[in-house]
C-alpha cells in the first residue's frame, strides 16, 4: 500500500555533494519511518541512515556519520539524504525503505516493509 520512488542519483566527483530524495505515496505516508540502504557491486546491502516517523530520531552508519544528513518532510511525504564529502567507496545503488508508524530509526533492513527501486550514485576518484 506504500510506494517509494528514489531520485537524485548520478555521477559526482570525489569530495562533491549530492542530495537523494525518496517520495512516498499511498496510505500512512505521513507516518513512515524511513531508512536509506546501499548496495555496491559484489557487496551485501548495508545500512546508511534512518529516521523515525516523527522525524526526531536519526541513526547513521559510522561510515557516513558527519558527511550525510537524513531528513524528512511529512507534508510532502518525502525523505532526503544529503551526501557531502563523497568518497569513491560511497558508490552504490541507494535504496529507501519505509515502515508505517516506525518509532525507531532502525538499522535492520528486515525491519522495513516497503522498498524503492534504487538510484545509482557513482563517485569518481
Tell me, briefly, the overall form.
Answer: globular
**Separation of the first and last Cα atoms:** 40 Å
Mean pLDDT: 95
Rg from C-alpha positions?
A: 13 Å
Number of strands: 11
- The helix content, as a percent range, equals under 10%
Helix count, DSSP H or I runs of 4 or more residues: 0
Taking the sheet with the most strands, its summary is:
7 strands, mixed
Low-confidence stretches: none
Beta-strand content estimate: over 45%
**Coarse structural class:** mainly beta
- Secondary-structure element sequence? EEEEEEEEEEE
Task: Give a short summary of the structure.
This protein has 125 residues and is mainly beta. Helix content is 0%, strand content 52%.
Describe the structure.
It is a single chain. The mean pLDDT is 95. 0% of the residues lie in helices and 52% in strands. With 125 residues, it is mainly β. The N and C termini lie far apart (40 Å). A hairpin with a 6-residue loop joins strand 4 (32-39) and strand 5.
Amino acid at each position: 500500500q506504500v510506494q517509494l520512488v528514489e531520485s537524485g542519483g548520478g555521477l559526482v566527483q570525489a569530495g562533491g555533494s549530492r542530495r537523494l530524495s525518496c517520495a512516498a505515496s499511498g496510505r500512512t505516508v505521513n507516518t513512515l519511518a524511513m531508512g536509506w540502504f546501499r548496495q555496491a557491486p559484489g557487496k551485501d546491502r548495508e545500512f546508511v541512515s534512518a529516521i523515525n516517523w516523527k522525524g526526531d530520531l536519526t541513526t547513521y552508519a559510522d561510515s557516513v556519520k558527519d558527511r550525510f544528513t537524513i531528513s524528512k518532510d511529512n507534508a510532502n511525504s518525502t525523505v532526503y539524504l544529503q551526501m557531502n564529502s563523497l568518497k569513491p567507496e560511497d558508490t552504490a545503488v541507494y535504496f529507501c525503505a519505509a515502515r508505517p508508524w516506525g518509532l525507531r530509526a532502525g538499522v535492520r533492513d528486515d525491519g522495513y516493509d516497503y522498498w524503492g527501486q534504487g538510484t545509482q550514485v557513482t563517485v569518481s576518484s
